[in-house]
Structure formats: structure tokens, C-alpha cells
Recover the amino acids of this structure.
């Protein structure tokens, strides 16, 4: 009986497993092997062991890679604070059911369903140095040179803010669902004990929201490490200005497929980046979820 | 009944087989031709018709999106397929394909007109390995030259009646334009493309043009050279004439600004003439090289081949493909190319209808020098181009000096450029 049940499970799972094997697992293993060969254009040549990793970690690729990696980490930190922090506050506000809260709930989530490419171009126009409304407003306010996307000090922050604008609805919704699933009894008990609103938030809500936090932190981590589309659309393939918005994804793309105007590539080093990225995302999210799971409490 | 049906089937099958075999015998050779020049489809379809009339060989032109073309062609070639005729990029872009063995080498015996092309253009069709550098892998199709495009109406409005004849006069004119409330130069540093091009226009007279090009590409000199450093500094110093909010301006933004009559000068290549004419037919503009340092001194126009027509090493019709390349190297074709596409054909001695393009071709004839970073240093990562772009961006922000950038460029390029590895 049990055997038969397992057999059925296997039969039902097989198509999905097969697809995953062919389109996910085999290519991943293949990519790993790519990083162990030397390449001319897309032509695979001799086996070189870990040479591509050595190249990646020595001049001239190291500086670019370290800077790209640091931008991924900054994006993670920035998105955690700005996007998810704002998401939590918005969720709390919506949970209190202010007037028109259904309208606000939809509005907050609206940018999430827009195409990321559309969002990127839209904000590019807002920031346009010649015709952008934000530029005109800043110039009118007396800021003579306003070009955050062209200034290495602000370019990355600007991208993080745009990313947050696009995604904030997602953590909001997840946190809101988390808040709604917390039983009313806990609040009543806390209030009877004389807890203030702040104390309820800090000592009742936050611990019970831990499962939602786990999901959001892990997804933000993966998203930030693989950050590609928005920098690509808004700052170009080389992470303008001067690599200030370069990410590991962009660097991989540049080396694998070449910038269109330069047509030079280094597939071996690109494959090495993809392996490093895979390890960072895999190990990072595994350790992260182990740690965060342990902190979750039963609700 | 069943029997007869089967018989009919057999007869039909045999008939089909004969028909198809007959068609295959009668079918003329067809060459496939891939390109990134989506905008030139009509032109190449017409060329294909002319070629078919002459030889009976069909050519089918298929363009792909510019930004995706490199990926499409590389993966097709890696998979052992791809078209018979490949529109290839120049210098490093072609060398990468040639070095991987994807392209068929050609020589002057097969394409006699190759002898007519200047050697600086043919080097755009050479590989980069020791053996592939000795061979030629295509027929160059266009030359491009960089310089200052100027808006005649705006210069008039700023009270500049004659074009400045020396570099100091030129800078004084820029200051005058700025004082008149007009943006002097439309370019900006955001994507670095324009910075490299400004260097190509202004730099050669400071580093010494073709002589320095020869020395640096043979390793006699590096970028750490007083003339080269001065050229970087002069390029970065032009930032005071860039538009307001210039940090946010890259090549496309600058081009839009100039096209709409928003700036007096714009540094770019002859390839943008068609864009200006199409997007603002009223724009009254001209072309000038950077004026020399002193009256009667020497100036330069940085020039480069835009790309080549190459043959897939795995083509099944090499003879037909070589015939087509011969056709693409003739005066007849070159003249049509220059006239109809408003681009300077690589075939020497073509005449342009567009007066500005004619000016570009003429000035290139007098002052042409290889576009240093593209012709010499775009063969492997990190390219001289990317190092120069980010270096000049740093200089404009005040984060690096010319000497530091020159040192970084030398160090970066030395990772793959053997003459620097000493």
C-alpha cells in the first residue's frame, strides 16, 4: 500500500523533476564546468582547473568584482532598511484599517505588477538631466547641478530607492497577512496587562511576525545578490557612472556576452562569477533561513 | 480498394521525390547574410538583386537587433551553424571570431580589390593571435571619423562669425558661447562614450597622432607619456563647457540636445549625420576637426573602420561567398553605399551627396589618424576603451589625475597586451 502510494508520488512528480533536471540542474552543473576551461569567444578550449577563479581574484578583475559585490551588499542593506522597513510601517498602518484602507492597499501594491523595465525607463525620464521633472524641480529649488544617476555618490542610492518604490508593496502585503493571522487574544491580554501601543508592537507583533521576516529577508537577499534588471535598464551594462552601480550580475553579463559596442568577452571568468554567485546565494540563504527559523516562535 | 490506395500513395511519393530532386538541381545557390544593420535592410535587399542579376546567386539578408547581434552570432557560430556571409564588427570584435576559427581567411588572389584598401582599414579585418594577425578575414565596409559638429545658427547668435583656427581661439569661442547663455558642448560624461570620443578628437594633437600610435602599439611607449597625459587633461578640462546637470548626460542625451538645437557643438562621428537629418531636418550644422595648437599647425581626425563583410568558415558555398565579397569591394558598390546610406564607404574614392559627409570624408583624407583606443586596444578585457572611459570619468569628478589614469590604463592593458609586458 505504502509502496503503491510512493509509486504514484514518483509518477506525478516525474514530469516536473525531469523539467527541472534538464533546464535547471544540468545547465547549472554545465556552467560550473565552464568555469574550469579557457575560452576564445564562445569556443571552449583546454581544461585550466581553477585558473579562471584565480583571474577573477587578481588584477584587473578583482577590483571590479569586489566593487560589484560590495554594491550587491549595499543594495541588500539598503533594501532591508528602506524597502522592508517602509513595508512594515505601511503594513502596520493598513492593519489599523484607516479610512479608504482598501484603496491604499491596492495603491501600495500597484507598482509591483508593473514591468520592471517600464519602471526603470519611467524613473529615467523623471531624472532626465534635460527634461526630467525632478531635475527641473531641483534646479528651481537652487540645486544647480542635479544628476543623481550621473553622480557616483548618489547613483546606487537612487537605484535602491527606485527598487524600493517598485517592490514595497510586496513586503507590505506579506507583513499585513502576518499581522492579520495573529490572534486577537494576544493583544487583549497585553492591553489588560497595561501595555502601551509601542510595547504591543515591539513585544507581541514583532516576535509573531518572525515567519514573515524569514521569507522577506531571504527573498531580499537573493534579489539583491542577483540584482540585474534595474541597474541594466537605468545605468547601462557597465554600471554607469564609472562602475558606481556595477553589480555581480552586470559584470557577469558584460564578460559573458560583451558590451554591444566593445564585443570583447571572457566567458571563463564570467562562468567563475556565476559559480561564486551561486555559492553566495545558496550558502547565504541556507544559513540565513536556518538562523531565522530558530528565532521564530509559535503563534 | 486498399491496395489501390497504397499504389496511389507510392506513385505520389515517387513523383514528389522526382519533383523535389528536380527543383534542387534547378535551384540556384542561396547565400544567407546576417547583420545588425536593421535600418539598411532595403539597401541590402537591393544590392542582393543587383548581385543576383550579375551572377544568378541569391542572397538573403537578415538583420538582428544591434544590441543582441553579438550574442546571436557568437552562439550560432559556436553551435556550428550561422549564415554564409557575416556582417562582422571591426578590430577586437572581428578578432575574437577570427581567433576562434569561425571565419574564412581571404587574400588578394581571391578578392583583388583588397589591395586598394589602406592598410589601417585592413587591420580592422585581422585576428589578434600571432598567426591570425597575418591573415585577413573580411572586406571592410565603412569608415567613421570623429570631430566637432557645430550648429551654425547658434554660433551666429553667439557672435562667432568665423570658425576658430587654433585651439586657444577655440576655447575662447566656447567661453564666449557660454557667456551668451548657450550650451557650448552637448556631450556629457555619464556613460563615458562621449569622453572617449572627445579624447579621440582633441587628444591626437597633444600626444602626437600617428607617430605615437605606432610607438604605443609596438610597445616602444606606454600610456605613461607626457603627451598622452596632457591629452587626457585637455579632454577632462572641457567639462566646464558641458551642459547644466552634465553628470547625468551620456551619449544619447547629448545627441538629443544637439539635434534639437540646444548646444553649439557636439563631438561624435559621421555616423550621426543621418540621425541629425532624420530627427531635425532644419538643423543647420557643419563638421570641423579640433583646430591645431598653433596657426598652421598639424591637427588630426581619429578614424576607424566600422566593420567588415566576412565568410563563415563552415559555409557550404565558399566560391559563391567569395564572389559576393568581390562584389562588395567594387567602386560601384562603394559609391551606392556612400550615397544611399549616407555613410562613408570603406572603398576608397567614393563621393558623398551630403555636404557635411563630404566634408568629413575630405578632412579624413587630410588628417586621418587611427582612433587610438578602438584600433589599438579593444582586443581583450579590460579594454583600453573601458579603462579610459572610467578613468576620464574619475578625472572629471576630481578623483584622479591624468598621470594616475595613464598608469592604470597601462597596467590594465598590460594584462593581455604583450608589448607592455616588460
Amino acid at each position: 500500500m505504502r509502496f503503491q502510494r510512493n509509486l504514484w508520488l514518483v509518477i506525478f512528480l516525474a514530469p516536473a523533476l525531469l523539467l527541472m533536471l534538464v533546464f535547471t540542474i544540468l545547465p547549472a552543473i554545465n556552467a560550473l564546468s565552464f568555469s574550469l576551461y579557457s575560452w576564445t569567444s564562445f569556443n571552449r578550449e583546454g581544461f585550466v582547473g581553477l585558473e579562471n577563479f584565480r583571474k577573477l581574484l587578481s588584477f584587473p578583475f578583482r577590483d571590479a568584482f569586489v566593487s560589484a559585490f560590495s554594491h550587491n551588499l549595499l543594495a541588500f542593506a539598503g533594501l532591508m532598511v528602506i524597502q522592508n522597513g517602509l513595508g512594515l510601517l505601511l503594513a502596520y498602518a493598513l492593519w489599523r484599517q484607516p479610512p479608504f484602507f482598501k484603496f491604499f492597499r491596492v495603491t501600495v501594491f500597484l507598482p509591483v505588477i508593473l514591468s520592471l523595465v517600464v519602471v526603470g525607463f519611467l524613473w529615467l525620464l523623471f531624472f532626465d538631466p534635460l527634461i526630467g521633472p525632478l531635475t527641473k524641480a531641483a534646479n528651481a529649488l537652487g540645486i544647480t547641478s542635479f544628476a543623481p544617476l550621473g553622480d557616483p555618490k548618489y547613483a546606487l542610492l537612487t537605484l535602491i530607492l527606485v527598487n524600493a518604490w517598485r517592490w514595497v508593496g510586496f513586503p507590505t502585503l506579506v507583513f499585513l497577512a502576518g499581522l492579520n493571522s495573529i490572534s486577537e487574544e494576544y493583544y487583549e491580554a497585553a492591553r489588560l496587562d497595561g501595555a502601551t501601543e509601542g510595547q504591543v508592537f515591539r513585544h507581541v507583533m514583532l516576535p509573531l511576525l518572525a515567519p514573515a521576516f524569514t521569507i522577506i529577508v531571504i527573498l531580499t537577499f537573493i534579489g539583491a545578490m542577483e540584482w540585474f534588471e534595474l541597474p541594466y535598464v537605468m545605468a547601462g551594462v557597465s554600471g554607469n557612472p564609472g562602475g558606481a552601480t556595477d553589480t555581480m550580475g552586470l559584470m557577469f553579463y558584460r564578460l559573458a556576452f560583451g558590451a554591444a559596442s566593445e564585443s570583447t568577452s571572457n566567458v571563463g571568468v564570467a562562468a567563475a562569477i556565476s559559480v561564486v554567485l551561486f555559492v553566495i546565494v545558496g550558502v547565504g540563504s541556507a544559513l540565513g533561513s536556518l538562523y531565522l527559523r530558530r528565532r521564530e516562535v509559535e503563534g | 480498394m486498399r491496395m489501390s490506395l497504397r499504389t496511389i500513395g507510392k506513385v505520389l511519393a515517387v513523383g514528389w521525390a522526382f519533383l523535389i530532386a528536380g527543383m534542387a538541381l534547378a535551384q540556384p545557390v542561396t547565400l544567407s547574410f546576417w547583420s545588425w544593420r536593421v535600418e539598411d535592410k532595403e539597401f541590402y535587399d537591393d544590392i542582393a538583386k543587383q548581385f543576383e542579376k550579375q551572377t544568378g546567386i541569391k542572397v538573403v539578408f537578415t538583420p538582428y537587433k544591434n544590441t543582441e547581434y553579438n550574442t546571436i552570432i557568437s552562439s550560432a557560430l559556436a553551435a556550428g551553424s550561422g549564415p554564409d556571409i557575416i556582417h562582422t564588427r571591426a578590430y577586437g570584435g572581428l578578432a575574437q571570431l577570427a581567433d576562434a576559427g569561425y571565419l574564412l581567411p581571404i587574400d588578394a588572389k581571391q578578392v583583388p580589390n583588397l589591395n586598394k584598401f589602406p592598410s589601417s582599414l585592413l587591420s580592422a579585418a585581422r585576428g589578434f593571435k600571432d598567426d591570425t594577425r597575418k591573415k585577413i578575414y573580411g572586406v571592410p565596409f565603412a569608415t567613421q571619423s570623429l570631430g566637432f559638429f557645430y550648429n551654425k545658427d547658434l554660433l551666429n547668435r553667439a557672435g562667432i562669425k568665423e570658425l576658430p583656427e587654433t585651439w586657444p581661439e577655440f576655447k575662447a569661442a566656447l567661453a564666449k558661447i557660454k557667456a551668451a547663455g548657450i550650451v557650448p558642448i552637448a556631450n556629457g560624461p555619464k556613460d563615458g562614450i562621449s569622453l572617449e570620443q572627445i579624447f579621440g578628437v582633441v587628444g591626437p594633437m597633444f600626444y602626437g597622432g600617428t607617430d605615437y600610435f605606432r610607438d604605443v602599439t609596438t610597445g616602444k611607449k606606454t600610456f605613461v607619456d607626457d603627451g598622452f597625459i596632457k591629452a587626457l587633461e585637455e579632454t577632462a578640462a572641457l567639462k566646464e563647457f558641458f551642459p547644466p546637470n552634465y553628470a547625468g548626460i551620456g551619449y544619447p542625451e547629448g545627441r538629443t540636445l544637439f539635434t534639437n538645437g540646444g548646444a553649439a557643438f557636439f563631438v561624435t562621428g559621421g555616423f550621426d549625420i543621418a540621425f541629425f537629418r532624420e530627427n531635425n531636418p532644419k538643423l543647420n550644422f557643419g563638421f570641423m576637426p579640433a583646430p591645431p595648437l598653433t596657426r598652421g599647425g598639424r591637427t588630426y581626425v581619429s578614424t576607424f573602420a566600422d566593420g567588415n563583410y566576412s565568410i563563415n568558415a563552415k559555409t557550404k558555398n565558399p566560391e559563391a561567398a567569395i564572389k559576393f565579397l568581390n562584389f562588395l569591394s567594387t567602386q560601384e558598390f562603394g559609391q551606392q553605399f556612400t550615397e544611399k546610406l549616407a555613410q562613408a564607404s570603406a572603398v576608397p574614392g567614393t563621393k558623398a551627396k551630403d555636404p557635411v559627409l563630404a566634408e568629413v570624408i575630405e578632412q579624413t583624407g587630410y588628417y586621418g589618424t587611427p582612433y587610438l583606443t578602438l584600433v589599438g586596444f579593444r582586443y581583450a578585457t579590460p579594454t583600453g576603451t573601458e579603462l579610459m572611459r572610467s578613468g576620464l570619468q574619475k578625472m572629471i569628478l576630481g578623483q584622479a589625475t591624468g598621470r594616475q589614469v595613464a598608469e592604470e590604463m597601462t597596467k590594465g592593458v598590460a594584462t593581455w597586451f604583450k608589448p607592455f609586458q616588460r
Q: What stands out?
A: Residues 61-95 of chain A form the longest helix (35 residues).
